[in-house]
Amino acid sequence: MKDSLFDLPKEPEPSQPTPKQSEQPKVYTVSQVTALIKSCLENTLPGRLTISGQISGFKCHSSGHCYFDIKDENSIIPAVMWKSDFIKLKFKPENGLAILAKGYIDIYPPQGKYQFYADSMQPAGVGELQLAFEQMKNKLEAEGLFSDEHKKPLPKYPFRIAILTSKSGAALHDIVDSIRNRWPVAKLLFYDVPVQGAGAAEKIALAIKDVNKRNKQLQIDIMIVGRGGGSMEDLWAFNEEPVARAIYNSKIPIISAVGHEVDITIADLVADARASTPTKAGVLAVPDINEVKIHIDNIYNRITSDTQSCLRLSLEKLKTILASAVFRNPKTIVQNRIQQLDDFENTINNSTRNLVSANRQRIQTFFEKIRNIEPHRLIADRKININNLQNRFHNQMISILHKINLELANRENRLAGLNPKAVLQRGYSITRNKRTSSLIRSLDDVKTEDVIITELANDRIIESKVTKK
């Protein structure tokens, strides 16, 4: 058995092909590989995606296109948003902001990388409009547009009021009715502007600038800008930057009247005053004419009362002056001054005589001395001294007399000013009762049939008879 057995020959292994016999591998270009990946992505991924994540590395190119990354805690995707889509956003994308972005994923061949092409975006967890409102509010507040020091006071009594709103809205009628009921004397000028929709903010801002530009002719005292209530989207034109800056730069005081009580817009914060409703804008802009009339009546009564009090006090002062000694016997002052003048004259004469006598006595004494001490030698000097003394005496006399004349003229002028008859030259008159010779100050000082004498200027008189009181 053992000898019958034999080893079977092994099955020959297939021979390995030589390199010349094997097939050559296919070589791909970079562009072909990129195209394969692009095709794979297009066939595998959904056509549109919504991606949740945070913005990182946000950069807006000078062309208007925006480049950024969307990331979460584990991964990151580069993203692009073209200018045509970016300008539609109400808010400003910022690093770290959580968003929901809609778009599609594609390959960027020049760099061989995939990226997300976003065509719309909204904040995650907060409304797009609310975020845009907060961003605009923070930006303008930092620039000082809400500061009270820049707000202009409203005129107390405006007579020319401009209303900027839509002619089709109820706000116009509410504002007009409110103003005309309270202050019908005001002239109202209406400027029709769209208050919502695309381009409304620019047209509102342009209208505000136009009114300011033409105000030299229009003479507007105050401007009301606003509209009725609506959703936040309806009111959005009043949250945009062009309207805020136009209100801030306005030389005319502006009242913002947008929406209802709970609605707050950027225009409300920038304006010089905010009305919670269009109706209240009219109340805020003008006073109540009935209250103004009452105020004017109160002022008139106060002025009348004060005037009467002043007249009574002046009359009492006049009576006191007329009862003084100057008016009762005005000649006394003149007579006293004449007597004083006589006293001055006597004093001067006595002083002069004494001075002359003393000088003569001195001259005589000197003459005796000179006669004893060679008078011919000193006589020339003494004559000179005598002439000097005589000149001094003469000048002194002239100076004294001049002062006396000035004093006399001054007192005469003062006396003339106190003369009660001086007023006759200005058209006044003095009336006396011929029977009693007393001045007539009231009807009680005369009786019917009394003869009265009216004294005029230049000592002219009129004699008349009382026929009726």
What would your notes on this structure say?
This protein is an alpha/beta fold. It folds into five domains: 30-125, OB fold (Dihydrolipoamide Acetyltransferase, E2P) (Beta Barrel), CATH 2.40.50; 145-287, Rossmann fold (3-Layer(aba) Sandwich); 291-323; 326-418; 424-465, no CATH class. The chain has helices spanning 30-44, 83-86, 128-142, 170-182, 200-213, 215-218, 241-249, 266-270, 278-285, 289-322, 325-328, 331-372, 375-418; strands at residues 49-60, 66-71, 76-81, 98-108, 113-123, 160-165, 187-192, 222-227, 254-258, 273-274, 430-433, 451-455, 461-465. The strands form three sheets. Strands 1-2-3-5-4 form a five-stranded mixed β-barrel. It has a five-stranded parallel beta sheet with strand order 7-6-8-9-10, sandwiched between helices. A three-stranded antiparallel beta sheet has the order 11-12-13, with no helix packed on it. Helix 8 (266-270) links the parallel strand 9 (254-258) and strand 10 (273-274). Helix 4 packs parallel to helix 9. The longest helix is centred in the C-terminal third of the chain and has 44 residues, at 375-418. The chain is elongated, with a radius of gyration of 56 Å. The termini are far apart. Residues 1-12 have low confidence and may be disordered.
